[in-house]
Amino acid sequence: MAPVVNPTETEISEKYDYDLIVVGGGSGGLAASKRAAALGAKVAVFDFVKPTPVGTTWGLGGTCVNVGCVPKKLMHQGALLRQHIHDAKIYGWKVGETETHVWEELVEKVQDYIGSQNFGFRVSLRDKGVKYINAYVTFVDQHTVKAVDKRGNVTFHTADKFIIAVGMRPNYPDIAGAKDYAITSDDIFSLPYPPGKTVVVGASYIALECGGFLNGLGFEVTVLVRSILLRGFDQECAERVGEYMKAEGVEFMRGFVPRKITQIEPGTPAKLKIEAKNNSTGEIAEIECNTVLFAIGRTACTESLNLESIGVKVNSKTSKVIVNEAEQSSVNNIYAIGDVIEGKLELTPVAVQAGQLLSQRLFGKGKVLMDYVNVPTTVFTPLEYGCCGYSEEDAHEKFGKDNIEVHHNLFQPLEWVIGQKAGVCYAKLVCKNDDNRVIGFHIIAPNAGEMTQGFALALRIGAKKEDFDSLVGIHPTNAEVFTVLDITKSSGKELVASGCGGGT
Questions:
Q1: Span 69-111, pLDDT tens digits
Q2: Active site residue 143
């Protein structure tokens, strides 16, 4: 007896080249494509990287592995090692009085690792049966894309469904010299020469992370801050991060925005001059430096996809795709995931999980939607800041200020005691008064990311403050501070840094 064939599947395979085309080869796109292929779909991934203004380009894997999370964390670690060398002397290790860092060696090691990852992604797609095509696509209609490869060859491809996962690229200000002389985070991790004295423009997590590791590696760093630090994050924590960086030698110029960049002398690095204005006071500042790094936001890479002409609604200001709770756009067979969607978190693990869940719904029997609220993240500044859930400001807005209580304290890691470092580490739980549920977790401390990952599960399953209080802490650790947070903001009590995470 002949096997029963689903007519719908037969019709799709005959009508289109693919069941699914994923536009974008970043973390989200790769995860979605491999999950769809594992569920039996015929899948193709199109990925193409346009060079930056200074010519930087990279391989398969998207922002995270090439010019984001991965090289950022490696350079952050490189910077921390300088401090560890200093601490080693305090602990009795006999090391040299001065440290010498070779930028080129760090860049080489970072890029070697990234290259291995690029190769691994291509192999993984092949092994999963996903067709990889290195070409830039534009939509012709809701089922057809035009692809142009690096040689200019044009081909057309059809699919039943599409997932847009093209991510974002850094913004440049509209000022003289910006694209001629400045770089962004797309360039810094492969810069073939030491950046020298660097001016970082911006106050995003990318700005503070880059400024932080450059300062830690021994370069003079000035950060131009237009308004606030870490917009979208808890502002009390953001300011504490900034204060620590300032104490470590990073100069902050608050209220200043760049007006123009000129080159004084070419070279590797060059000698530059950046002119900035304080919009509040009118003060003009001229700063001589070697590198200007812009980290003033990012724009979704959708402008050339021809989306609006086929009916896909896009936010005109951000270029992001407008989707519903199931990541479906205004055109029912076209979806979007990751940084490119409007109003959602711009985080790699979010894109990965959203992509997997979406493919499970499209080609499996999945029904689970992505949870965009209780998502942990960490800012890898010199003193890391990890968080999950609501900031204090957002909690006040969402649930009402009278319904929110904050439990917090300073603490000093035991590792810092011998070195007499100040107790600047900080822990905060944002709780609802009506049910005592913990809705915001914030930690500023070494290895904050590792702590945040575990505690995020507590928020996800609805833990209450008494659950944290009844948890036995591991002594002596930093994380145990969350088991003994007994100072509330409403009490007005002064914060005093205790040792060993607050345990004694």
A1: 999 999 999 999 999 999 999 999 998 878 899 999 999 999 9
A2: no
Count how many Cα atoms sit within 13 Å of the Cα of residue 101 in the half-sphere of its side chain.
Answer: 22
Residue 499 has pLDDT above 50, yes or no: yes
Phi and psi, residue 413, nearest 5°: -60, 145
Per the structure, the complete domain to which residue 50 belongs is given by 15-62+107-170+299-363
What's the whole-number mean pLDDT along residues 387-413? 97
Per the listing, tokens 């739980």 go with 429
Provide the whole-model pTM. 0.94
Report the length, in residues, of the chain: 504
99 part of a folded domain: no
The angle formed by the CA atoms of residues 30, 34 and 38, to the nearest 5 degrees, is 170
- Total structural domains within the chain: 3
Picking from 116, 142, 122, 117, the residue whose alpha carbon sits closest to that of residue 134 is: 122
Amino acid at 441: F
Q: What is the CATH number of the domain that holds 407?
A: 3.30.390.30
Look up residue 44 and give its amino acid: A
What is the pLDDT, as a whole number, of residue 339? Answer: 97
The first and second tokens of residue 189, run together, are 């991790």
CATH number where 262 lies = 3.50.50.60
R_g over Cα of the chain:
25
Say if 92 falls within a structural domain: no
Residue 422 pLDDT? 77
Domain edge (last residue) among 269, 296, 323: 296
CB 468 within 8 A of CB 483: yes
